[in-house]
Amino acid sequence: QVQLVESGGGLVQAGDSLRLSCAASGRTFSGYAMGWFRQAPGKEREFVATIKWSGGSTYYAEFVKGRFTISRDDAKTAVFLQMSSLKPEDTAVYYCAGRNNYYPGGVYVTTSRNYDYWGQGTQVTVSS
């Protein structure tokens, strides 16, 4: 079982940037995809971004397009979420997640129930 550990969260001001990291237990991840989700107080967990591990293609939620970038390292042991132009509404706990197996149709995985394992989350707070 792969263990994921997020880091990089913190308190920033609106307009600032932040880079989240997700380490996959120090081992190479060889699954289908990694994703980032977030959950604000009183709200459901929502999809932010995903990257297919083979090929590195990416897909984003509409509300982060142009502001956030998901990427992975060449050693395939970590995934990152570079966040810029942060807004107070981006305040949430951010989680990374991994999916082992191929997803039917080879499409991007954007629903939380289709991921196999999760990190513990890292808090991002954006002040106005």
Quick gist of this model?
Helix content is 0%, strand content 46%. By secondary structure, the chain is an all-beta fold. The protein is globular and about 40 Å long.
Structural class: mainly beta
* Strands, total number: 11
Cα radius of gyration in angstroms: 14 Å
How far is it from the N-terminal to the C-terminal residue, by CA?
Answer: 40 Å
Largest sheet entry: 7 strands, mixed
Helical segment tally?
0
Characterize the overall form.
Answer: globular
Secondary-structure element order, as H and E? EEEEEEEEEEE
**Strand percentage:** over 45%
Mean pLDDT reading: 93
Poorly predicted runs are: none
Give a written overview of the molecule.
There is one protein chain. With 128 residues, the chain is mainly β. Helices cover 0% and strands 46% of the residues. The chain is built from no helices and 11 strands. The protein has strands spanning 4-7, 10-13, 18-24, 33-39, 46-52, 58-60, 68-72, 78-83, 92-99, 117-118, 122-127. Strands 2, 4, 5, 6, 9, 10 and 11 form a 7-stranded mixed β-sheet that branches. β7 and β8 form a beta hairpin. The chain is globular. The termini are far apart. The model has no long low-confidence stretch (mean pLDDT 93).
